[in-house]
Design brief:
With 665 residues, the protein is an alpha+beta fold. Helices cover 41% and strands 17% of the residues. Strands 5-4-3-6-9-11-10-12-15 form a 9-stranded mixed sheet, sandwiched between helices. Strands 16, 20, 21 and 22 form a 4-stranded antiparallel sheet that branches.
Length: 665
């Protein structure tokens, strides 16, 4: 029955757009009116019972010339928000003149407390007033929202006999209605939906992955959830619900505080509004506006759970410039002391900043609690393998893996999200791994674990059913090892990028001409000519070192003349320099038995016995390749079948050719 009521309310509000906005707004802009008006109506009807008390309090405050009135007015209202205008929304339905309605509606909006004003500003709702007034639809929109046929109130509507005519809509249910409206608008406008919203089936799985492994550690306590790319706040609220449910199963009572940051003004407003609608006035104050990367709203906080779907494949160049330029960033979230490097940089290329969100979360992990912190994030494949050894991306992976933070990575099916068909991956991190997971990473290939949708939603054509999500969760919780779940030691993903040098070998031709302008002074030229003229005759100069010794020339003069009198020759004797043209690089896995020395002995020296490793250029890298571990080769057809098909085609084409030729005779 509850779902039926929710659906009726959502359908009614959805219908307002079609009834009132169709000829004024394009379909993609309906949300600009409907979402803020839904917020306004809910707040309005919640405030109705204490309206007179608020007005009396305001009159008293004005008489006493009190300037800062918000706290007192909210106390009178009994909520973390208030409206001190002389109107309720239903009062405005009696305005016959457009301009009167406009003036009173603006006065009504101006009466809201600052926390609601911020939401309206971020929605840019006041920009819609002139459009609605000019089209003469503002009154109709208000009338629809105050219709007696729906109840957006936390109080039931009774009939004349005192029976419940329409049930109350509590804060949680109102939040559900609002989230459903957001979902519908996102689906209807799917070209941008993925920027704001992660599908609920994925969010629910992520919440379970974050909370279920530590359910036995939950106590009667307070916990915090954070999302540095919070969008409409869906991950936070689902994680909150999941944590409460698991705590209840354990017989525990928990208090959960939500924190988030969002850079898009509309989605920021939706998050704040959703929390106000759910009665989480305090939580609404924990949502920061702005860029998490260049303006961290929670730089001094740490959190128990962190879930996020950061933007991937999106430039963060503007953030880099605000932070002093990519090469000058010193933010300790991204440049830190690690190993022997006091400025270990994990700064990725400016075209994709998704790993920075993961590093931001790592910087907010709790170190002193029994449970520590758990991070669950969605990324695309770039975070797994982009960047050579020593690059910011590779260093970020190295930092996470060598600190033993990565518990598991799960490959999701393609086309799980609304605006992209590319493959995505869930990263699971913890700084308090259970004993059996220490020093290990679990990879789960869930790319084939999906259920098709009856109708595509943008590019999303599949979903996780409850059973599929449970299956994936169990693979993770049980550390199952099979064809879709494999466990590796951390060093499986590390490697050395080594530079292999070979000596330069030069054959010398002392009789070759040397341009006069090679020398700055005439005496240099004379010295060289004299030295070359006095060399032993008939000598095959295949040894540059011996030649240099014989000439007795200074190193500076030898350096000047060498390009003109030498030629690289593999049969000449090696000199104490490397040949840049023979320089090569090789990848040596950490798992290679015997390490670099054995690799050289087995793989290089048998083919180039004069080679050596330039140890100063050895760089450590990390990458994760699902293809490497889960690739399934396609079975080739039997040769007999191929030959049979070719023979059949030959017979068919021969008959066709005969028919064509015969028809032209």
């Amino acid at each position: 029955m509850e779902n039926q009521i929710h659906n009726q309310i959502v359908s009614f509000i959805w219908g307002i757009a079609d009834d009132c906005l169709r000829d004024v707004y394009v379909r993609g802009k309906y949300r600009d009116v409907i979402l803020p008006m839904t917020v306004i109506r809910r707040l309005d009807i919640v405030l109705e019972p204490t309206k007179e008390k608020v007005l009396q309090t305001k009159k008293m405050l004005d008489a006493n010339k009190v300037v800062n009135q918000t706290e007192a007015l909210c106390m009178a209202a009994g909520h973390p928000f208030c409206n001190s205008s002389p109107f309720c929304l239903k009062d405005l339905t009696s305005r016959a003149k457009k301009q009167t309605l406009k003036a009173d509606f603006i006065a009504y909006l101006d009466g809201f407390s600052p926390n609601v004003q911020e939401i309206l500003d971020k929605f840019k709702f006041r920009n819609q007033i002139d459009t609605m007034v000019d089209a003469d639809i503002l009154g109709a929109v208000i009338e629809k929202f105050v219709s007696p046929t729906i109840n957006l109130s936390p109080f039931p509507v009774l009939d004349d006999m005192g029976n419940v005519k329409m049930p109350a809509l509590d804060n949680h249910s109102m939040g559900t209605v609002f989230e459903e409206l957001v979902r519908r608008f996102n689906e209807a406008n799917n070209e941008e939906a993925g920027e704001h919203w992660t599908p609920r089936d994925v969010v629910e799985l992520m919440a379970d992955l974050a909370v279920a492994p530590v359910a036995h550690l939950i106590k009667d306590s307070t916990y915090s959830c954070y999302d540095g790319a919070s969008g409409t706040g869906g991950m936070l609220t689902v994680a909150q619900d999941r944590l409460k449910a698991l705590a209840k199963e354990q017989g525990k009572k928990v208090s959960i505080h939500l924190f988030g940051q969002e850079i898009n003004p509309e989605t920021y407003a939706i998050t704040k509004a959703d929390m106000l609608l759910k009665g989480d006035g305090e939580e609404a104050e924990h949502i920061a506006y702005g860029s998490t990367l260049s303006s961290d709203g929670f730089s001094s906080n740490d959190f128990d759970f962190m879930l996020s779907n950061p933007p991937y494949g999106k430039s963060w160049k503007t953030d880099a410039e605000k932070m002093g330029g990519k090469d000058e960033i010193l933010d300790t979230r991204f440049v830190t002391v690690f190993g022997d490097d006091p400025e270990f940089s994990m700064i990725p290329r400016t075209s994709d900043g998704q790993l920075l969100f993961l590093l931001n979360n790592i910087s907010k992990m709790k170190e002193t609690t029994e449970m520590g912190s758990r991070i669950v994030e969605v990324h695309n494949g770039s975070s797994l393998f982009t960047g050579d050894a020593g690059s910011g991306e590779s260093n970020a992976r190295r930092y996470m893996i060598e600190r033993d933070l990565v518990e598991a990575i799960i490959a999701l099916p393609e086309n799980m999200f609304y605006n992209t068909g590319i493959g995505t991956f869930i990263w699971i991190l913890s700084n308090k791994k259970e004993e059996r997971r220490r020093g290990k990473i679990q990879l789960i290939d869930a790319t084939a674990m999906k259920s098709p949708l009856r109708k595509n939603l943008g590019k999303k054509n599949c979903e996780f059913t409850k059973d599929i999500s449970k299956e994936i969760l169990n693979l993770y919780l049980n550390m199952t090892e099979n064809e879709v779940s494999k466990i590796f030691k951390n060093n499986e993903f590390g490697y050395w990028n080594i530079t292999i040098e070979r000596p330069l070998r030069l054959r010398v031709y002392p009789d070759r001409d040397i341009p006069v302008d090679t020398f700055k002074k005439d005496e240099e030229c004379l010295t060289v000519k004299h030295a070359l003229a006095n060399l032993p005759q008939g000598v095959d100069w295949d040894d540059w070192a011996e030649f240099a010794k014989e000439t007795k020339l200074k190193a500076t003069l030898l350096k000047k003349i060498r390009p003109f009198i030498t030629k690289v020759d593999s049969t000449a004797k090696a000199i104490d320099e490397s040949d840049p043209d023979l320089r090569d690089t090789e990848i040596v896995p950490f798992t290679y038995a015997g390490g670099i020395s054995e690799f050289m002995k087995n793989e290089v020296l048998p083919f180039a016995n004069d080679a050596w490793v330039n140890e100063k250029k050895t760089v450590i890298g990390y990458e994760v390749s699902f293809t490497k571990y889960f690739y399934k080769p396609v079975d080739l057809r039997a040769m007999e079948d191929i030959i049979a098909d070719i023979s059949l085609l030959e017979k068919e084409t021969a008959g066709l050719l005969e028919e064509i030729i015969g028809g032209n005779k």
